[in-house]
Amino acid sequence: MQSPGPRAERLRYRSNDISAKGIKAGSELKLLNGVYVLDCSDDAVHSNGNVTVEDGKYTVSSGDDAFHADETLTVSGGQIDILASYEGLEGVNVNVSGGTIRLASDDDGINAGGGQDGSGFGGAGRGNTFGTGASAYAINISGGYLVIRAGGDGLDSNGSIDMTAGTVLVSSTGGGDGALDYNSGFALSGGTLLAVGSGGMPSAPSAAEQPVIYIGFESVLEAGSLVAFTGEEQQYVYEMPIRTANLVFFSPELKPGSTYTVSTGGTCTGAPADGVFPAGASYSGGTVLTELTLTETITRYGNTVGGFGNNNGVRGDMQSGAKPQRSADGTMPIPQNGQQNFQKAQ
User: Fold this and answer.
1) Does some domain include residue 232?
2) Domain boundaries, position 150
């Protein structure tokens, strides 16, 4: 995968240039197809209204948001590789129904309603607020394949999260953040979810139509450690992308009343893709952590303090949703964690 350009190139834009953004629109921006390589100090794709991505291939490095919509951001197809960003996808509403998205972010991976955009349409430093056309902040995932490596929250909604289909592999290294963060609820009814956090604020969905496994490890697992869920008919083996203190696992194949042995460490045959070992791989040599009989909703083990969302977390000395401040010459700071986190996802 293509690496971001040199730092000097990424900082070449100044506040007195025409724009530091890559592609922008005043109201409606639709990307139907094409190949794009965007290396920007500000938002790579920006609209003061809506952004829609239907297809195409995008390789993005950004000092601010990779994709930003003041109203609704919709992704229904295409291949999006965000190598570095402050936040990956941001809008009042973020809807993902298809496509393949791999992103690294210094702060939130996907953010619904994160506050002010640090630079408005028509030039840097305008500080536009989000639009008011949407009635509620929401992240809606109804398809697609997402790999999110975030330095802040992985999925962060000032309102709700709803997931009905698709695959989401999300991790957060933020000390005061978590892989999942929401204010009004997270309804999980389909798809596959693996949410991994280094600590800070562990959180699980608030409502699930099928069993969810929620684990807080007594000792932090090192990056690269294996975690296996072994049942009578299925086995799932994952390689942790980061130092792991807690995780949430959901698959439509998990059934109430079934029993799964949870193991850590060990080895597994086959090569993992985005940390996921293929079906039929042979796992051995792990240490049994526990045996869980699944309930109809959430089955917990270990330290899962942090509960169901409503985290309203603060990352370091940064108010939740705040944007990085420009330096005296008008440039945006470049993310420090994004590229490193993304490389761990390979």
Assistant:
1) no
2) 21-219+294-312+329-344
Answer with the residue of higher pLDDT: 125 or 280. 280
Is there a contact between 214 and 299 (Cβ–Cβ < 8 Å)?
Answer: yes
C-alpha distances (whole Å) from 149 to each of 16, 88, 169, 222, 282 are 33, 10, 8, 16, 27
pLDDT digits (tens, 9 = 90+) for 265-295: 999 999 999 999 999 999 999 999 999 999 9
Instruction: Quote the number of domains for the chain.
Output: 1
Per-residue b or e along 279-292, where b marks 16 or more CB atoms closer than 10 Å to that residue's CB: eebebeebeebeeb
How many angstroms separate the Cα of 192 from the Cα of each of 165, 203, 251?
7, 17, 5
- Residues 6 or more apart from 47 whose CB is under 8 A from it? 24, 25, 26, 27, 28, 29, 68, 69, 70, 71, 121
In a domain, 233, yes or no: no
Q: Is 37 a member of any domain?
A: yes
What pLDDT is stored for residue 304 in this prediction?
Answer: 77
Is 201 within the bounds of a domain?
yes
